[in-house]
Amino acid sequence: MDIIHPDIEKYIDHHTTGESDLLQKINRETHLYELMPRMLSGHVQGRFLSMISKMISPKCILEIGTYTGYSAICLAEGLHEGGELHTIDINEELIEKNKSRFHESGFGNKIIQHVGNALEIIPGLDKDFDLVFIDADKENYLNYYQMVMENLKPNSYVLADNVLWSGKILAENGSKIDKDTKAIIEFNNYVQQDSRVENVLVSIRDGLFLIRKK
Ligand SMILES: C[S@@+](CC[C@H](N)C(=O)[O-])C[C@H]1O[C@@H](n2cnc3c(N)ncnc32)[C@H](O)[C@@H]1O
C-alpha cells in the first residue's frame, strides 16, 4: 500500500534539502550490493532524522539497527559537541565498510559500532541516552522500548521506524497476520497507552513514531 501518493512523495523529495555526496553514495551502494535496500532510511527520512537530531542536540544517541550506516550519519549530524552515537547491528559483515563510511563522514571518532544481538548489548551500555532510534527486528520493538525507557531521563526521545508497516497495521481484528505485523501493532498500542510519554505518529515514508519521555 502506498501510504502517500507517489506524486506527493516526489514533490516532498524535490522540496527537501539534498543528500550529501557521501549519503548519496551509501544510498547507491546499498541499492547495488545489499539485500533489502528498502531498509535504508533514504533521502527525506534521513533529512528528517538529521533535523530532529539538530533540534535536540543530543549528547548520547543509541541506534538499534545500523545496516549500511545511513541513518547513523544523519543522526550524528545533530550531536552536541563532544557527543557520541552508539549503533548496534547483528550483522558483522557490515562493520568494516561502515567503519570507513563513518570515517569519511567526519564522525568516525563519535560513532561507536557494536556487533551482536541488541537485546544482549543494550543492558551492558551504561550511558545516559537522550535520543534512541529503534530500527531493527520488528518482533523486538517492544522489548527494546521497555529496555531503554527504564533508564531514559525526562525529556529524552525515542524514535521508532516502520510503525505503519506498509499499511499492514490496519489488519482487521481477528484476521490472520504475520508476526512482524502483530509486533508492530502491539508496540504502537503500547506506546499509545503509556502514560510516561507523549507521542506523535508521523506518516513519513513507512511511519515514524516520535516519542518523548515526560
Ligand atoms: C531496517 S535496517 C536498519 C536501517 C538503518 N537504520 C537505516 O535507516 O539506514 C535493520 C537492521 O537491524 C539489524 N538487526 C536485526 N535484528 C537485530 C538484532 N536482534 N540486534 C541487532 N541488530 C539487528 C539488521 O541486521 C539490519 O541491518
Pick out its properties.
214 residues; single chain; binds S-adenosylmethionine; 8 helices; Rossmann fold; alpha/beta; seven-stranded mixed sheet
Plain-language structure description:
The chain has eight helices and seven strands, in the order αααβαβαβαβαβαββ. The termini are far apart. By secondary structure, the protein is α/β, with parallel strands linked by helices. Strands 3-2-1-4-5-7-6 form a seven-stranded mixed sheet, with helices on both faces. It has helices spanning about 5-15, 20-35, 45-55, 70-75, 95-105, 120, 140-150, 180-190; strands spanning about 60-65, 85-90, 110-115, 130-135, 155-160, 195-200, 210-214. The chain has one domain (about 10-160): Vaccinia Virus protein VP39 (Rossmann fold, 3-Layer(aba) Sandwich), CATH 3.40.50. The longest helix is centred in the first third of the chain and has 14 residues, at about 45-55. The structure holds S-adenosylmethionine (SAM).
